[in-house]
Amino acid sequence: MKEEILEKAGEMFLKLGFKSVTMDDIANEMAMSKKTLYKYFKNKEVLVEESTSMMHEACHMGIQMITDQGYNPIRENFEIKKMFKEMFKNADSSPIFQLKKYYPKIHERVMCKEMGAFSECVKQNINRGIEQGYYREQIDIDLCIQFYFAIVFSIHENAETENRPEFEVLALEYHTRAIATEKGITELENQLLNYTS
């Protein structure tokens, strides 16, 4: 039951916002009493924290499934971008922006978690890209990751919802062009064509 509540709460938080969804709303949606809801979660903040943690795990599992496919590193990044677009297509505003505004402590913990998990994923992607000739050899990998994350998180914390997906693709293109070889640029152009069509 707890997992079902987390799943439903996560959907509602993404669609309607962390602030506007109440414990009453979630209880009504789950056709349960508020008392039952409080049996599993002592307050809304705990529910927000656990549901964001569950979303984080779902994202991480999705990324792992994509990296297991053995795509070239540039296509892999675009496949991950598609996965995120699909996962958050019903979100009316940026979940990261909402967390930062209404639950700053949870936001800070989520960001630390994401930076750790996703920076390792990006590092592996860059190393494979160098080995396979898609990315240049003479790059500072850690600095590239910092730059890329700074851009992506800035988009999530500031951009209007309707522009966010477009900005994310532009950020990925910018990141890739900065480190790509000629072979990488050719693959990037192919992925951009596939992504937009």
Protein model, in words:
With 197 residues, this protein is mainly α. The protein is built from ten helices and no strands. Helix 4 (44-67) packs antiparallel against helix 5 and helix 5 packs parallel to helix 10. The longest helix has 28 residues, at 104-131. It is elongated and about 60 Å long. The model has no long low-confidence stretch (mean pLDDT 90). Residues 1-59 form the HTH tetR-type domain. Residues 22-41 bind DNA.
Number of strands: 0
- Please outline the major beta sheet: none
Q: State the helicity in percent bands.
A: over 70%
Radius of gyration: 19 Å
Q: What class would the helix/strand composition place it in?
A: mainly alpha
Looking at the structure, the CATH topology is Tetracycline Repressor, domain 2
CATH class: Mainly Alpha
Overall geometry: elongated
Distance between the termini: 41 Å
**Which regions are unreliable across 5 or more consecutive residues at pLDDT < 50?**
none
Overall average residue pLDDT = 90
Provide the succession of SSEs. HHHHHHHHHH
Number of helical regions: 10
Proportion of residues in extended strands: under 5%
CATH architecture: Orthogonal Bundle
* Number of domains as seen in the coordinates: 1
GO molecular function, one term: DNA binding
Pfam family, one: TetR_N
Protein name: TetR family transcriptional regulator
Domain HTH tetR-type: 1-59
Draw up the topology in text.
Elements: H1 2-16, H2 23-29, H3 34-40, H4 44-67, H5 73-87, H6 95-102, H7 104-131, H8 141-158, H9 164-179, H10 182-196
Helix pairs in contact: 1-4, 4-5, 4-7, 5-7, 5-9, 5-10, 6-7, 6-8, 7-8, 8-9, 9-10
